[in-house]
Each structure stands twice: as C-alpha cells, then as structure tokens.
Amino acid sequence: MKRLLPLLAVFLLLAGCANIPLESQPMVVAGDKPGQVPADVAEPAAGIDPLTVTRQFIRNSAAPGTANADARVYLDEEARRNWKPSPGLTIIDDTFGTVYDTASPSGNPDEQVVNVRGFKLGNLSADSAFIPVKAEYSQQFKLRKQPNGQWRIVDPPQELAVTDEDFATNYFRVPISFYSPDSGAFVPDLRYVAAKPQAGLPGRVMDLVLQGPSEGLKGAVKDLLGDQVTTETNVRSTDDGTLDINLTGVGGASPADRSLIAAQIVLSLQTVTLSRIRLLADGTALVPEHEYWRSSELPNYNVDIAPNSELLGLMTVNGRVRSLGDGAPVGGPAGNGGYKVVSAAQSVDGKRLAVVEERDGRQWLRAGDLGRDLGSVDLFGGSLSRPTWRPVARGGGVSGEVWTVVDHNTVARVTLAADGRWVKAGVDATMLTGLGQITELRLSRDGARLAAVVNGQLVVASIVRTADSVALRAPRKLQERDLKDVVDVDWATQDHLIAATSSSTLPVVKVPLDGQRMDAFNSSNLTPPVHGVTAAPSRPNLVADAGGLWVASELGEVWRPQAHTVTDADPFYPG
C-alpha cells in the first residue's frame, strides 16, 4: 500500500494560513447543489470509450471536492443533477478490471454495460474510520452515448469506490485523541480527513474531535465533549499565526474536565498544525488563566503506560525467566527453577510478574511481586497463552489485573483482591472467540484495546468496561488477505502493532491498529520461522527465531544479534 501524504509540507503551509474556513469531515457528500460542476473542473477528453470513462470515474471518485465534481463530469446531465452518493467510501485494490457485459446485450449500439471487478480492502465509514474488509468487489455501470457523441454514465452507484493509491493521495490519517479514565491516558483513534485544501485541515480535524470516538472505540474511552459542545465560530488562523477555537456548550464542566478537553484538542491537532492554539469557551479562556496552548506545555498523560527506560525487558529460557539486560535470572522461583515456566509477562510498572507454569500435566497461572514467590491462581488448562497486564490508572499504584486465554477459546482475567488473593473475573469475549482459536493476546498499554492472534490472523478489539462488566467489542481482522500464519504480536506504540509470522517471505511486519496498510521489516539475518516478538515505545523491536534473539529499530534496518541472545528464548517487554 502507498504511503499517506508527508506531514512536513502541510505543517509549513498551515503555520501562516489566515481565515481558515470550517471544513466538512472526510465523508463523501453530495453538496448543496449536486447538479452543478464548477467551471474549473475540466470535462473528460473527447472520444474516450465506455471502459475508460468508467475507470476514470472510479479514479476521480477519490477527490472529495465540492459535490464530487471530479467524478460527476463523467455522468450524463440527468445523473449530474440527481446523483447523491452515500457517505463513506469503499477502498479497492489498485488493480481492477473493466469489461463489457455480454450476458444481457441491449441491442442498442448507443448503450453499454460495463462490469467492474476487483478486490475490496476496506471501507471508510461515515465516522471517517477505516474498517478492513476482505471481499470481492463488483459493480455494474450503464453508459449511454450522448448527442455530442461522448459516452457518459447514466446510473452511477450510491456507494463510491476508490483505489487504495488514490485514497492514500487524497486522504490524510490523523490520530484523534480520546481520554481513558481506566488508565488516565489519551488513546488514539485513527481517522481520515480530506488532504486538500491543506489550509482547512485543522477545521476538519476539529470536526472529528466534536464528533466523538469512532464506532470501533465507543465505550472504551470517554467522550469529554459530548453532544452539547460545538464550535461557536469557524476554526481560523489569526494574523499572528494563532489558531483560534471558540467552543460553546462547555457549560458547567469542572476545571479538571476543562484541562482534559484542552489536552484532547491540542493532542488531536498536533499532527496538522505547528501553530499555538487559542482555546476559548463562550468567548473566554476554556481553562482560566491559560488561553494559549502548545503540545509541549501539556502534562505527560501517558507517562504511566510506557515502560520506564530502566526496565530492559525479560525472557523465558528453558523454564526460567532471565533479564534481557544482562542475561541473569530474576530473583525467586521464577528465575531459579522453582517453577517450570512456559511463558511470562512483566507489569508495565515493572513491579510484578505473571507466569504460566507447567505442573501435573497442566498449565497454571501464577502472579505476584517480581523476585518473590508468586501466588498460584485457580486458573488452569491444557494451555494458557502468555499473560498480559492491564495498565494502572494514573497515580493508581501497582498493577493488579492479568489476562490470558485458556485452551485457545476462553478469555480469562484475574484480579488482586484486598486479602492478597488472585481471583477470577469475567470477560464477555464472545465476539472475539466467535472468530476462532485464540493463540496470543496482548492488552494495549493504554488499556482501551487488545490485539490477538486468532486462527493465524491478526485481530484488534476494543475493551469496554462498566462498573460491573468487561466486554470485548468490534473485533476486526487486519490485513486479512496478505497477513497469514501470525504467531505473535505486540504493541510497538498505541496505534501500531508488530507481528511475527511463520512465513519465510514475510517474517515480521508493522501494521497500524486499523489495518489500513502493512510494512514488512527487512528479513536479512533472520532464520525462519520467527516464533516470538516484543515491542514497546522507544524500544528496539526484538524477535526470536531459530538462531536466537535479534533487534532492529527501523523497518529497513538489518537485524542484529541481541547482546544476550540465546537459542529458544522468548523475549518480552513490560506490558
């Protein structure tokens, strides 16, 4: 897949823009006067055949300009007046076919039916989120020769289809930030806005902030603004380069919530503007005595969800847990052989350890303080997936919740009770388990999502918590067509995953959490099959193959041996 537009040029242009109008969200809309094509939009070249007309219509459907004018010029006069495409887009593979339909010829030489065949990669939903889809794409177009001799489409589809390349050219991915009370962190929600006009990017991003979380993240984060908050005036740049945002409807929001709202807006806009931001509510400072904002002035809300730089990670080797930093065993039975460790996980704060222990022909879960005896949990089965820790709310103390998958089909979590015992707690995981056998599970370090390996496919789902329940919602398979035989996964950042596969041609890949693209790591020096991977923010990616442990920081970088590499090791960073 092609890369999205570079940010730098956008940044520089935005810094000096003035009088930015409020722009619509990146959904395809019909416009107020759908039948009128602006004079500066050129008509198609004369004499092109029906197949070319159809292909150019699809290629020009990606430009979300006024009333889809670039695509509308390929329609006849009646269709130009009446065509109202539905919100959203279907993204198809760059290679698609157009052929004349011969099944039901009309007998009229001035009419043709064109069949379009391709492969569907996903949809841009009405809330501007990419939803991966694996399906065949087919559509029929009816064309008629006009009195001037030119072929035009007479029955355009309601659902617009665009190629992946054209989507990447015309749309810009933005992580919209939403607050998670569960972890005290801001969670990215990947959304897509029209890339042009560049000057309107802040306004379009602000529209998405006001719209709230996408359907796939609802319930997993808090909508700080709600339905009542809107902008009183257009998002605009002043003569001194400041970006003005004037909210209304904030009303009786507490000082704490006002500070969170300011952080949400500034974080969401930081990828599309370098300007300082002036935040007002009904004409006065949103946060008293703090009218102007830059992202560098914000507290680090995500400080507790990233492993401390002093925590170098651990590995399991021959039934024991050792340090990745010096290769030495950790303290207690987990390191000295007192437990026959199958897999393990360290909490994000580094203070606790959970291990899967083989005992009496079964696998059991243990958890407790790192370096000490670990409490045995009443949770066992023929197999348990490597544990994964829930993050702690900001300033909330030590991690006290661990998840695992029992026998590939039961998602289980255990929590630390007041009396020091680890007790089982429920998870409604039916939407995930319904997809197949789960072999790996990783909670995101912000606690809003999880990644899983299900039947060898990479899946992401949101975690919705209420006062008395935890449920997994909106599971989505990522890169379902091209990414197969996945054996392990970890969160490199909040919005990107690193996955390892048993494939010799695609052993390690990086995938955004919405699956809109996939990038392969250099496979040099690796000896397939790769059987493990771990990643974390500001850490080198670490994989385990038949020869040992290998590290690489960038996609194109050649893998190099880890300092304390050992055969049959399984590495893991905290989380």
From TrEMBL:
Matching InterPro entries: GerMN, LpqB_C, LpqB_N, Quino_amine_DH_bsu
Source superkingdom: Bacteria
Pfam families linked: Germane, Gmad1, LpqB_N
Domain GerMN, residue spans: 202-290
Keyword terms of this UniProt record: Lipoprotein, Signal
Signal peptide as annotated in the record: 1-20
Protein's UniProt name: Lipoprotein
Species per Swiss-Prot/TrEMBL record: Amycolatopsis decaplanina DSM 44594
